Amino acid sequence: MNLQQLLKTIGMSALLSVVLGSLVVQAEIYTWKDASGKVHFSDKKPEHGPVESVEIRVNTIMSPNISDSAFLSAREAGTVVLYSAEWCGVCKKARRYFQQQGIPFKEYDIETSRKGRQDFARLNGRGVPVILVGDKRMDGFSAGRFQTMYEGQQR
Length: 155
What we know:
Number of strands: 8
Strand content: 15-25%
Structural class: alpha+beta
Radius of gyration: 22 Å
């Protein structure tokens, strides 16, 4: 193999790696009830009976769509708001991270706080934690993604 063929082969391999590496991996999650009423979840579609596809978002950052002006004013100030539940380990991790980094935040428990329940419903929350920073929202928690989101709001 000459040098030109080698470079062409390496170039094609690198291009193929980039293309394959950038593909989004997506899986369907299904839910259904069996004859006894028990709810099941699986990545394999059952052969019989009614089934629903489940949308799952983990550690996403997006802009919430909320029209309540009082709710918006708190968010626009760049305040970090954490919607959590006492039993949630990821919520505890987020809270501990904010405390260790000296990041001021407001926390609302979605089970014990009326405001927490109401805001969580307005946000169409499906799981905790939900973290708001300015006009950005994160479902779940990742320190790296949070820091990117937080720094973007501080500019």
